[in-house]
Amino acid sequence: MAHEIQWSRDLDAALASADGKLVLLDFSAAPL
Amino acid sequence: MYPNPRVVDFITTQFIPVRVHARENAADFKRLGDRFNAHWTPTTLLIDRGGTERHRIEGFLPIDDFLSQLALGLAKAAFARQDYPAAERLYRDVVDRFPDTDAAPEAQYWTGVSKYRTTNDPSALKATSQAFRERYGDSTWAKKASVWA
User: Fold this and answer.
1) Which of A20, B73, B79, B123 would bridge B87 by S-S if both were Cys, CB 3.0 to 4.6 A apart?
2) Res. B19: pLDDT tops 80
3) Do B18 and A30 touch (CB under 8 A)?
4) pTM to 2 decimal places
5) Cα three-residue angle B48-B55-B35, rounded to 5 degrees
């Protein structure tokens, strides 16, 4: 089980590599 | 919410995660916010590879509610690509795994619709209407299914 999420910042690259998966796009203002 | 291991595991296995932060990535936040009409945080969008939004979660949710919405999004995406057997399975999974969430009655409704789409048998809709008499009878989805009684 993964311990943290490896977030990308590049939506278009994520869409290009989606290969059947959905992209989860998170708009966040949470403390980093 | 996201540090929760169940949430991390679900997102990691089911989705390609992209995050834009209101302050750290202000330009991307503005650009993508305008593109998807997302101007509040937290907002989570599930987007197919064609760039079409398939599901939207706005505002904070407790863990099971959030997970149920993510699962609902998977089902909605299957329905949108007209893979009705997969949609039925995924909607039913929402009801089975998250029976006490707001997603459950919605998923129960769409389970019936998906089955009908697969079989073209109207008894699937009637059975769904009857199911709402036993569970989620106070939901909006029960009202929508009542026409099938």
Assistant:
1) B79
2) yes
3) no
4) 0.95
5) 70
ipTM comes to 0.94
Query: Which site among B1, B4, B16 would you substitute to test the A interface, given the most A Cβ atoms closer than 10 Å to its Cβ?
Result: B16
Dmax over CA atoms of chain A, in Å, equals 31
**Tokens standing for residue B146:** 């009542």
Q: Are B87 and B114 in contact (CB under 8 A)?
A: yes
The parent domain of residue B54 ranges over 5-148
Q: What angle do CA B78, A10, A25 make, to 5 degrees?
A: 40
Q: What is the CATH number of the domain that holds B111?
A: 1.25.40.10
- Cα–Cα distance between B144 and B129 in angstroms, integer? 9
Structurally, chain B folds into a number of domains equal to: 1
